[in-house]
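Key result, reporting period 2: structure in, sequence out.
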């Protein structure tokens, strides 16, 4: 008994299931044997004794046809009346042959069938043949004289033999029916026994599971619940099968580990609370510092501007009034002072513009970038006239954003393209857009001096300049403003270092959902059209011998140009005219 108690849960369940399986397999084997016998008995009823009864009756009918035909021929002497006799004999032979094939398991019925055949043949030899022969030779009177009571009695013996045959067939049928009932009852008994085995085994399994699984698990769960409620010092013990004892030991080991880690967490939480308090103090300090910075921005935009304007104004007055009256060095010093004051004003204005991006917002609206480019063309008109620059753009999308910031973004890019031009080469600037996934990729490409790949990321850093301020004027904040505006709108900006000529700065802006859906639908339609074209052996691209694109627009002109340059290349045509403008 002690050995049984040490059995694992798996061993106990497997043993019980093995015993049940053996019993069920035995019952199933017996049921298969009984069912096979039952099928044999049913087959005997349906396919042997049943047809035998019908065929015996038909044999009787065939003999009656023969007897009737003989008596009719003895009366009429007409040979046509013997046709039923011949047909009856043929039918009798066929029926007897068919019955012989079904009598392999019934020797008694076969003997009775042989008696019927013998008596039928004796009747034909002693009555039928003599009557037919006498009638044919001596006439109907002589033939009728042979149809006596003795002849009728002899035929009655044939009928008696057929009755015995029918009785034997009926007995065999009843025996088969009794066998069917017996095997059916035995099959039901076997099924009931199998059901009883299943019910008993299920009951034993339920009782065993309750004793070996449910109760130990319930006890273990109660102990775990106490630990979960906060009593991490409560030890956990297990009862029942060895698996549950090991499980209880593992859970208790986990409890001890959790208790240890909780102690560590408690200490870490205390440290974190202290760090959070320090962070809170730093956050308050940052808030105060931000307020100071905002105050500084206000002072810079108002209080510092006024002294700078005075310095610049009086220096310019000195320059105009005393130019040529002082020595050359004095004129140079005054020019340095004027230039420094003006550069300080531009620097302060650019810093204020940079700090206001994303802080002073008017909210996002739907902005037509074509209209924005029109405003940019107007803002950069003087610079383009001075440099004989050409500004073109393709069809641009509508996006959600702040129109003033987007105008500032494109104005900075166009101004940079005009500023960093090659000597003796008229600048050409082209702005284009294309849908990439769910974003618009907008490109500003020029034919200027270009940017070396190692400086591609450096140019977006505030105050970062790649040239001396004497070579190219500016504060070094323009592209930093561009990057901040693009990131404020949820995009990214970069320099395409793969261009062969000039500079290509690209940035992305989120596309409207309807633009994405329209592009997806158009792509599906193009795919369907390509499939149809492949089926016809033609290509739609061969219709006009070239590509079709959205007409590009030129700044300062209301007419569409015939430029066919793609969005990633500078346009080859569509000039604005002879515009010579200065950089602001």
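The corresponding designed sequence is given below.
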């Amino acid at each position: 008994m002690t050995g049984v108690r040490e059995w694992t849960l798996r061993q106990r369940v497997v043993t019980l299931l093995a015993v049940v399986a053996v019993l069920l397999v035995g019952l199933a084997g017996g049921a298969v044997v009984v069912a096979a016998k039952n099928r044999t008995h049913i087959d005997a009823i349906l396919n042997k004794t049943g047809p035998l009864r019908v065929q015996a009756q038909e044999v009787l009918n065939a003999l009656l046809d023969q007897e009737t035909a003989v008596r009719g021929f003895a009366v009429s002497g007409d040979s046509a009346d013997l046709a039923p006799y011949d047909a009856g004999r043929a039918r009798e032979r066929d029926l007897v042959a068919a019955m012989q094939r079904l009598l392999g398991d019934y020797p008694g019925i076969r003997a009775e069938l042989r008696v019927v055949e013998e008596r039928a043949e004796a009747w034909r030899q002693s009555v039928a043949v003599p009557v037919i022969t006498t009638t044919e030779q001596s006439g109907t009177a002589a033939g009728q004289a042979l149809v006596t009571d003795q002849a009728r009695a002899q035929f009655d013996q044939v009928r008696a033999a057929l009755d015995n045959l029918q009785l034997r067939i009926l007995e065999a049928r009843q025996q088969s029916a009794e066998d069917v009932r017996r095997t059916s009852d035995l099959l039901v008994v076997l099924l009931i026994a199998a059901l009883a085995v299943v019910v008993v085994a299920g009951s034993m399994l339920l009782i065993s599971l309750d004793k070996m699984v449910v109760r130990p698990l319930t006890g273990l769960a109660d102990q775990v619940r106490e630990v979960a409620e906060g009593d991490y010092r409560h030890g956990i013990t297990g009862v029942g099968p060895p698996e549950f004892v090991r499980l209880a030991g593992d859970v208790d080991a986990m409890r001890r580990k959790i208790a240890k880690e909780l102690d560590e967490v408690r200490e870490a939480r205390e440290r974190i609370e202290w760090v959070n308090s320090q962070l809170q103090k730093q956050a308050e300090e940052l808030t105060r510092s931000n307020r100071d910075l905002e105050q500084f921005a206000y002072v810079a935009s108002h209080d510092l501007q006024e002294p700078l304007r005075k310095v610049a104004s009086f220096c310019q007055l000195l320059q105009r009034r005393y130019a040529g009256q002082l020595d050359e060095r004095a004129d140079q010093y005054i020019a340095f002072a004027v230039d420094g004051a003006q550069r300080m004003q531009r620097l302060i204005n650019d810093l204020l513009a940079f700090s206001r991006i994303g802080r002073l917002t008017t909210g996002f609206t739907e902005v037509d970038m074509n209209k924005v480019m029109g405003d940019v063309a107007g803002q950069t008109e003087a610079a383009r006239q001075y440099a004989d620059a050409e500004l073109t753009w393709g069809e641009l999308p509508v996006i959600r954003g702040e129109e003033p910031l987007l105008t500032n973004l494109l104005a900075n890019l166009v101004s940079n393209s005009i500023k960093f031009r090659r000597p003796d080469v008229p600048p050409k600037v082209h702005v284009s857009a294309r849908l990439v996934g769910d974003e618009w990729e907008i490109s500003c490409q020029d034919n200027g001096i270009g940017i070396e790949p190692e400086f591609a990321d450096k140019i977006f850093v505030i105050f970062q300049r790649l040239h001396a301020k004497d070579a190219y004027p500016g504060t070094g904040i323009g592209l930093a403003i561009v990057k901040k505006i693009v990131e404020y709108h949820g995009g990214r900006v970069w320099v395409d270092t793969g261009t062969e000529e000039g500079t290509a700065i690209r940035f992305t802006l989120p596309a409207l959902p309807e633009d994405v859906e329209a592009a997806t639908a158009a792509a599906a339609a193009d795919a369907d059209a390509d499939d149809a074209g492949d089926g016809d052996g033609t290509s739609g691209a061969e219709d006009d011998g070239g590509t079709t694109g959205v007409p590009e627009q030129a700044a300062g002109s209301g007419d569409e140009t015939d430029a066919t340059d793609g969005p990633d290349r500078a346009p080859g045509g569509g000039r604005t005219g002879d515009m010579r403008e200065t950089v602001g």
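Strands lie at 365-368, 390-393, 398-401, 428-436, 439-446, 493-495, 504-510, 553-554. Confidence is low (pLDDT under 50) at residues 537-551, 556-584. This case is discussed further under Risks and Mitigation.
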